[in-house]
Amino acid sequence: MTSTVSTSTVLDFTDVALGYGDFTVLQHINLQVAPGQVVALMGGSGSGKTTLLRAATGQIVAQAGTITAFGQDLAALNAEQLQHMRKRMGVLFQHGALFTDLNVFENVAFPLREHTKKSEIEISRLVLEKLDAVGLRAAAHLSISEISGGMARRVALARAIVLEPELILYDEPFAGLDPISLGITAQLIRDLADQLNCASIIITHDVPESFKIADHVYIVGQGKLITHGTPEQLSASTDAYVQQFLHGKPDGPIAFNYPVTPAFERWLAQKKL
Ligand SMILES: Nc1ncnc2c1ncn2[C@@H]1O[C@H](COP(=O)(O)OP(=O)(O)OP(=O)(O)O)[C@@H](O)[C@H]1O
Prior knowledge:
Elements lengths: L10 E10 L2 E11 L4 E6 L5 H8 L7 E6 L2 E2 L5 H8 L2 E4 L11 H12 L4 H14 L15 H13 L5 E5 L7 H18 L2 E5 L3 H7 L2 E6 L2 E6 L1 H5 L4 H8 L14 H10 L2
Parallel strand pairs: 3-8, 3-9, 6-7, 7-8
Antiparallel strand pairs: 1-2, 1-4, 4-5, 9-10
Helix pairs in contact: 3-4, 3-5, 4-5, 6-7
Bound molecules: adenosine-5'-triphosphate (ATP).
Pfam families: ABC_tran (PF00005)
GO molecular function: ATP binding
Organism: Paenalcaligenes hermetiae
């Protein structure tokens, strides 16, 4: 656990509602992430985790409330300002595809070549430094077809941090990893947050692994923020939803059925059943 969490806020959601068209996925979301902090965002399938991530990067605008990143209200930024702001964020998608025609080194160098005017020497230094951080310095020369799935995930992670973002968003970073790669990846996320003092949000279903590294956990469901707290606080919670979620119990308040939306009702009405 980090002890150096600053009081400033990198990302702030204040009473935010999010959705698509006339469908509201989440309401009354309050969430803050500080430099160096690792925040886990959890919730059942379709509960709105990816939607929250899209809102954090300004891909979708809030239906209500305010989202600020680095102190700037996202709704007030134009396309160019948003673009500029996104350079301060690193996003690691679950299927963060690497360029298969480039080797490991060139994959990590890509954002530096795209967004900076650094010299070749400087690029080499930074790329090898980031590959070292994920334990793959000596894999720099390999082609993507020569590395394993777990290694590919770590290369994608090195690429996501090469511009030294102040906020990193991880979309299901543990999905599909074997237990050893999973443990290594989780520890890497923690170490990077500590070393770079970057704020980190991980979307994950993995309770044990995320509880080991997170400073704060948010659980969404039923269209709202169910609860949040430190892993210790949530583990001690007696709330039925939290218990069902943390222990994967089949019975409890978490609905199995996908919720009825206005779009579904319109579609069903057309069927004249
Ligand atoms: N582009 C879109 N247009 C309309 N509805 C969408 C869109 N993307 C997602 N949704 C809906 O928003 C809700 C939340 O989806 P979201 O992808 O945020 O959930 P999630 O928590 O990330 O789920 P999972 O864990 O299964 O990936 C779902 O009901 C989904 O159908």
